Automatic annotation (TrEMBL):
Pathway: Cofactor biosynthesis; adenosylcobalamin biosynthesis. This is Precorrin-6A synthase (Deacetylating). NCBIfam families: CobF. SUPFAM superfamilies: Tetrapyrrole methylase. The keyword Metal-binding does not apply. InterPro entries: 4pyrrol_Mease (IPR000878), 4pyrrol_Methylase_sf (IPR035996), 4pyrrole_Mease_sub1 (IPR014777), 4pyrrole_Mease_sub2 (IPR014776), CobF (IPR012797). GO terms for biological process: cobalamin biosynthetic process; methylation. One of its GO terms (molecular function) is precorrin-6A synthase (deacetylating) activity. Keywords: Cobalamin biosynthesis, Methyltransferase, S-adenosyl-L-methionine, Transferase. Transmembrane segments: none annotated.
Length: 254
């Protein structure tokens, strides 16, 4: 029988963001798969466990923690970067396929809990597509509240200017191509906003939806250096950081 997999978006960090649809899927799951990313990120697995404890009505489910394959981070640009990511995804797919085969019986249901929404800068769906080439699985996707939604809610701002588009991009792309209009920036380890003109508006947030949440806003000239310092301190204290920010060009800029 086909093994079933739920990919469940669990929000940006606040358990109250878990949707009713996600709760139904949680209660339909026997085995939860989670990546073990080392001691520094143990609290990420702990939050997943807390969500299950809070919303699952009947005990009997279990967690299977999977070793995360090493990733080559030396390549940061162009074909080498894409090749490194592809190799990492392929290694993850092998780990997942082995775990699903050995830990999930035929006809049973497993789940991966994805931060935010599984569609937004998350590799789960691409990896499961690869797994499905080798293991008989059927999977569905439960959408979740994104870090972008949480960021704009915390700062009490609309995502877009009136009638204007918004780009969702990465720090590397921002450095390479600059800013025009409004952009949400994710996966930025290098504070790429510092390369923007000083009158660029920024709304920044880290650990969104958690007790460790950090928020800051202003222009890059006013708060850019302070954000970079706060970010570095928080990453050193926690051993990891998840942050995102919205940029908006000054009128007439770009």
């Amino acid at each position: 029988m086909t093994r079933r997999i739920h990919v469940i978006g669990i929000g940006a960090g606040d358990p109250d963001q878990v949707t009713a649809q996600a709760v139904t899927a949680l209660n339909d799951t026997q085995v939860f798969f989670a990546m073990d990313k080392g001691d520094a990120k143990d609290d990420l697995v702990a939050l997943r466990r807390h969500i299950c404890e809070r919303f699952i009505r009947e005990p009997g489910y279990r967690f299977v923690e999977l070793p995360d394959p090493p990733r080559d981070r030396a390549a940061s640009d162009g074909p080498d970067y894409r090749r490194a990511v592809a190799d990492w995804h392929a290694a993850r797919a092998r780990v997942w396929a082995d775990a699903i085969t050995s830990e999930l019986s035929d006809g049973a249901t497993g789940a991966f809990l994805a931060w935010g929404d599984p569609s937004l800068y998350d590799s789960t769906l691409r990896i499961l597509d690869t797994v499905a080439n080798h293991v008989d699985i059927d999977y569905d996707v439960i959408p979740g509240v994104t870090a972008v939604q949480t960021l704009t809610a915390r700062h009490r701002i609309p995502l877009n200017d009136v009638g204007e588009p918004v780009l969702i991009t990465t720090g590397r792309q921002l450095r390479d191509h600059g800013l025009a209009g409004s952009a949400v920036v994710m996966l930025d380890a290098d504070c790429s906003f510092l390369s923007c003109p000083p009158d660029t508006r920024i709304w920044w947030g880290a650990y969104l939806g958690t007790p460790d949440e950090l928020l800051m806003s202003g222009t890059v000239g006013e708060v850019g250096s302070r954000i970079a310092a706060v970010r570095a301190d928080a990453r050193a204290r926690h051993g990891w950081i998840m942050d995102t920010y919205l940029l908006r060009s000054a009128p007439g800029g770009g």
